[in-house]
Inverse folding.
């Protein structure tokens, strides 16, 4: 996995924005930054006091190349009421480092490595180094598919630890979990009632914010049929976007197609999508993984439930649907009307 967390003294190029340009949101200097987090969507900055790191008050929006305020506001995470409203009283140890490092130590606050190191998915490695056989290391591919997917869900989910607080401290990650153990003994996915829009979920149960891939995926028919996150992603790195094994459409069609029992039905792909070959409207991900989950401001990541969100759900429950995510100049009623004319579509499900 990518290097998210870096020490700017060792990697001066880690800081993306130009800190010599003044900005009213930025009240810190380069020398205050002990660690830098993030390189894809957003970059956050941390200062060190004693053994702890604390977030500074501005973050860099990489997409728009602008500064934004950084402060976790009320009603945007379960732990907010349990911490004072001051970044300098919200250490990264309990709130972040359990997902952005290896072996965060609850007593010393030290880590053995920053970022998503091998041991986060393969378990402790010292026995394997001493005696490198298959038996001395966890390979997620040889776990059952639920435990295998849990190696990813430990970080790619919004949830709460079962044990809280631990010695008076509230952690926002599954303390004590290791690959191969049952994540459910340590972690509970954020709860949701159908019909309620919350900071984590849309009313229909689809993720509303980032880091909801696990919460989403467990709702999919693919999950219950034994597909794992690494059926589609190779976290050791690939040349494709989002570490996909193959470009998205190529990959989907390895298991799907008009003649596949996995669907979709219809004589051809175009008959299913009702958009011409080569059109963005013919790409699986654009209807089954719409970009509707907030990473930062208007920068979104893709849903991982894989379900088609019908335009009627937008009208009823304000959940953005796939059609109008592209056809922004049209109404959900227009999309419903179009769908009504598409062959093989169940009016009971999509209208
Ligand atoms: C984010 C999770 C994750 C991280 C981090 C990770 N791996 Fe893996 N690794 C997996 C998964 C999942 C599999 C099984 C599926 C696959 O091969 O992609 C795997 C498989 C492997 C395999 C077996 C490949 C095979 O052909 O059977 C090796 C060897 C391996 N990893 C080594 C490493 C090493 C060394 C590191 C650190 C540099 C590392 N992994 C980091 C998740 C991870
Ligand atoms: C220890 C926490 C952790 C674990 C375990 C983990 N991830 Fe991640 N993952 C992250 C973080 C943090 C990022 C953001 C990386 C960045 O900013 O470069 C990320 C990013 C990703 C990305 C996007 C990368 C990109 O370049 O767009 C994919 C895909 C992904 N993870 C898949 C997986 C899969 C699949 C597994 C399980 C085999 C897994 N992750 C396990 C923490 C984790
Ligand atoms: C339960 C695990 C978990 C916790 C806790 C967590 N993160 Fe993350 N973080 C992730 C994963 C996984 C991703 C990438 C996936 C996504 O954002 O959808 C990510 C993404 C990020 C990114 C964006 C990376 C990029 O390249 O754009 C930043 C910055 C970040 N986290 C900072 C923090 C900070 C600061 C905290 C504490 C206040 C924190 N994280 C707490 C798991 C976690
Ligand atoms: C059926 C295939 C498939 C499965 C299963 C799957 N993903 Fe993805 N994932 C994708 C595709 C496709 C993209 C979007 C790539 C793009 O935008 O081009 C993606 C994107 C991502 C991203 C980058 C953020 C974004 O939306 O752009 C992360 C992180 C991620 N997946 C994590 C996971 C995790 C964790 C799991 C398991 C809980 C998982 N994925 C399961 C296909 C899959
Ligand atoms: C490794 C094989 C595999 C890959 C790759 C794969 N799928 Fe699937 N998919 C399945 C299986 C198996 C099912 C369950 C079929 C059934 O219900 O009988 C399924 C079901 C689905 C469904 C039904 C709805 C649901 O709840 O999941 C959709 C939609 C879907 N896949 C979309 C996609 C998309 C989009 C991609 C590419 C990003 C993709 N699939 C990649 C195997 C795969
Ligand atoms: C233009 C939008 C659109 C695109 C693009 C699209 N789908 Fe669909 N898909 C739908 C709709 C609408 C449904 C019906 C949803 C329902 O019944 O709940 C559906 C249903 C499905 C189903 C489940 C029902 C079935 O027929 O078995 C699967 C599997 C599926 N699509 C796979 C794919 C794959 C794979 C691709 C890419 C080749 C794709 N879809 C591209 C709109 C789309
Ligand atoms: C990723 C973007 C995208 C998505 C998602 C998408 N479309 Fe389209 N759609 C297009 C494009 C682009 C065209 C123009 C056709 C072409 O490519 O030649 C189009 C054309 C159409 C047309 C015919 C042209 C017109 O304006 O009268 C209809 C009807 C339509 N789409 C309905 C839908 C419906 C309904 C959905 C959801 C099930 C949907 N589209 C999802 C991009 C999209």
């Amino acid at each position: 996995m990518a290097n998210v967390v870096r020490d700017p003294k060792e990697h001066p190029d880690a800081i993306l924005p130009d800190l010599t340009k003044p900005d009213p949101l930025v009240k810190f200097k380069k020398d205050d930054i002990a660690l830098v987090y993030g390189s894809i969507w957003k970059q956050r900055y941390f200062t060190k006091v004693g053994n702890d790191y604390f977030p500074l008050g501005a973050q860099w929006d990489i997409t728009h190349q602008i500064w934004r305020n950084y402060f976790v506001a009320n009603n945007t995470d379960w732990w907010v009421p349990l911490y004072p409203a001051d970044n300098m009283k919200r250490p990264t140890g309990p709130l972040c480092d359990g997902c952005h490092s290896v072996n965060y130590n609850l007593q010393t606050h030290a880590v053995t490595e920053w970022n998503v190191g091998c041991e986060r998915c393969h378990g402790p490695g010292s026995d394997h180094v001493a005696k490198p056989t298959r038996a001395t290391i966890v390979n997620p591919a040889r776990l059952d598919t639920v435990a295998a997917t849990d190696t990813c869900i430990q970080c790619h989910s919004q949830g709460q630890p079962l044990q809280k607080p631990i010695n008076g401290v509230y952690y926002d990650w599954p303390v004590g979990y290791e690959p191969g153990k049952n994540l459910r003994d340590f972690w509970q996915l954020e709860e949701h009632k159908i019909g309620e829009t919350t900071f984590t979920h849309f009313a229909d149960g689809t993720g509303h914010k980032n880091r909801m891939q696990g919460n989403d995926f467990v709702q999919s028919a693919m999950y219950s049929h034994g597909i794992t996150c690494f059926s589609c992603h190779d976290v050791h790195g690939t040349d494709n976007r989002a570490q996909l094994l193959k470009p998205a459409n190529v990959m989907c069609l390895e298991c799907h197609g008009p003649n596949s029992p996995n669907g979709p039905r219809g004589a051809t792909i175009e008959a299913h999508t009702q958009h011409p070959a080569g059109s963005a409207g013919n790409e699986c991900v654009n209807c089954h993984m719409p970009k509707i989950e907030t990473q930062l401001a208007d920068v979104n990541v893709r849903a991982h439930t894989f379900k088609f969100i019908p335009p009627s759900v937008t009208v009823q429950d304000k959940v953005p649907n796939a059609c109008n995510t592209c056809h922004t100049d049209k109404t959900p009623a227009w999309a419903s009307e179009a769908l009504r004319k598409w062959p093989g579509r169940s009016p009971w499900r999509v209208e």
